[in-house]
């Protein structure tokens, strides 16, 4: 019996030994397979494009600047034409040849967080500026509501009927969004804006329904506001000329005295809470220009209020019949722009040769 019991125990030990060996081999094999899968996923992640949107992969160079450090931007693009303070805490680095293209890179914490671009020769694959509304919508289906989640906080951006036509919003990745600005007269893509979620929430260009905190906007000093306003004046001037070039119109020259007239009108509208081409004392553009003593053949004025920034204001003018006419008027030769807070004024002149 002892011999039999010993044989049984020996058999059990041998079986368990084989089982342990087999399990150890299986665990090793699973570990190797798991490492191989992990390595493959890492390689795939490294080779895959960073940003995806609905049906298309964004491949143009412009998209990949989001999140890049300013050292790389400066190395590739060189020194910007200007560095303009924004009303939202970041700095615009402006690149333009003042006729064919215009790009603003929004820099915060030494990284690119937002981009606005208009003009020719921009790398925006798979889309192109000038493409039809329908072709863009096929690649990036537009929705009336676009959501964003940050931990326990949720945000829903709601598009109006006008938003859907003029400036639809598309979610590109978890925390990156794109605005498409369309020219509703030609039904073509006019410009684009990329924004990280935090920038979008600070701008609030759409109605937003949210649960959780909204990022605080900077409390600017008067001196800082003055810098923001001067920057937006130059941005409007540059973008206006790029648009005129698109429609084969001559470039406008900057007129400093007229800029002062435009600024005073913007400030007056803000300070006295009205919105009109006529001041509260009844003066119109003609009367306001008289103080400059300038000789001119004809003049025109565009005003706007409460747009989040200069590019948005210009795209708004482009889609308004009368403002568009002034913006693209062939006979105009000079432009003065005045911005006070979020009130915008353009004064155009046709000066004698």
UniProtKB/TrEMBL annotation:
SCP domain sequence ranges: 241-347
InterPro entries: CAP_assoc, CAP_dom, CAP_sf
Domain of life: Bacteria
Domain CAP-associated: 66-206
Pfam families: CAP, CAP_assoc_N
Descriptive protein name: Membrane protein
Source organism (scientific name): Oceanobacillus indicireducens
